[in-house]
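Fold this sequence, please.
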Amino acid sequence: MNVRPRIFFGFDFAVVILVCLVTASSGAAQAKNPYAGDAKVAKLGEFEFRANCAFCHGLGARGGGRGPDLTRTPKKHGDSDADIFNTINNGVPGTAMPPNGATQQGVGMTEEELWQVVTYIRSVEKKASTVSGDANHGRELYYGSAACGTCHMFKGKGGRLGPDLTGAGTARSTEYLTESLRKPSRRLAQGIIEAMKEFTEEYETVNVVTNDGTKYQGTLLNEDSFTIQFMDMREQVHSFDKASLKSLQKSRESLMPAYDEKVLPDKDLQDVLAFLVGGGQGGVK
């Protein structure tokens, strides 16, 4: 009476072991990049990257409006080839990084194509620039005389009119951040409807005059054919029917002032950068 159950139990156990072996074998196939260092494969990976990744991560993997700069090391979600493969394939839950093939951008990549992209990313990596500034003084500037915190959130503290800079120091190169401070309108002016856009449309400048003459200025949040939503300089969100407005103007001239050397000397700039990098990694109190 006890023989049949034992036979079935043994069979089920064997199936479980077989599944585990197959899964382990599949995982092992992803543990090592079969094309590491192959320049020809990196070129193929660049094509796949442009089709599937550049919309968020920018041309050359240098970062876009949504995605971080992938030429930087180490990577936030794991720095081995296998880690990068898994990040691309599985996405990052809770972030804008989707699983492979989950969006309309691209058609989903095969395992071979994923490794090609990993090889391409490795080929464009460069050593991170060192920041020698005083991070604690940079924090004082950020929330003080430089007034960055008026518009930019950092770890839950600051304004909402501009992008949250909590992860900017680790997701963007120091060159990118420097240019964003010195010439804030440059990336916004490149255009927001191109496939390889460098800046999200939320920070396009909006000037509105209502029929009763009330004037508003702020940054665009959302727009369709009939309505527009934006945040004004006091961080109040407004929604209007376009037909009800006296005038509506949009501009790619950023509301953020240019921090030239007179406003923010190079030493202070380095301190702010040090705060963005060190503070984003939890190194500044």
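The first strand starts at residue 205 and ends at 210. Confidence is low (pLDDT under 50) at residues 13-29, 189-201.
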